[in-house]
Amino acid sequence: MGYTRAYEGVGLGLAIVKQFLKLNNANISVVSKKGVGTTFTINFGKEIQPKTETIITEKVSRDVETLAVEKKQVFLLVEDDFVNQVTIKRFLRSEYKILTTDSSEEAVDILQKNNVDIILMDVSINGAKNGLELTKDLKASKEFSQIPIIIITAHAFENDRKNAFQAGCDEYLSKPFTKELLLDTIAKFV
User: Fold this and answer.
1) Which of 83, 92, 133, 164 has the fewest CB within 10 Å, making it most exposed?
2) 73-187: CATH class
3) Is 108 helix (H, G, I), strand (E, B) or coil?
4) Distance spanning both ends of the chain, measured CA to CA
5) Do 96 and 71 contact (CB within 8 A), yes or no?
6) Could you tell me the pTM of the whole model?
7) Can you give the residue ranges of every domain in the chain?
8) pLDDT profile of the chain (190 residues), mean per 10
9) Beta carbons within 8 Å of 114's beta carbon, 6+ residues apart
10) Do residues 29 and 43 lie in contact, with contact meaning Cβ atoms separated by under 8 Å?
11) Which helix (H) or strand (E) holds 28?
């Protein structure tokens, strides 16, 4: 139990996927074979041929980009789910510079090497600390306490919201959220 468990969930994953797909007029199908695996296919309206086997062979690298002298504000996105990283980066890429990580340790490293204006923090992240613990540490530090932290999480119960604010976050968004809601929330701090 808790925000750092590695495998078990609370059963919200497919419900969240369903809401994302509904927002995009898409559908999902599943093929599963016991002991072999499961393949989920998402269709955004184009005709596709389902693959019989999907193998992921490369790990996505998360290099910290060297920041050029720009007028764009810099966001740190701390999110363990690659699809959510891509989606949020697409929401924000035209207006903001986005640095991305999936772990608490790398988040601190990025903060020490870059001038970050806003942090978007998931609760369930990789590393020694979950997003709430990291938020609490950042808000207690002299160096990073002034950076606004927006919690973005699938932990959507009222108690989760309360825990986020007790940890020191400046705002809270439960997934799924729309691009407009994210931009409206960010507008409070930029």
Assistant:
1) 83
2) alpha beta
3) helix
4) 36
5) no
6) 0.65
7) 73-187
8) 56 74 80 80 67 47 40 89 91 90 95 95 93 95 95 88 94 91 91
9) 64, 67, 74, 76, 99
10) yes
11) strand 27-33
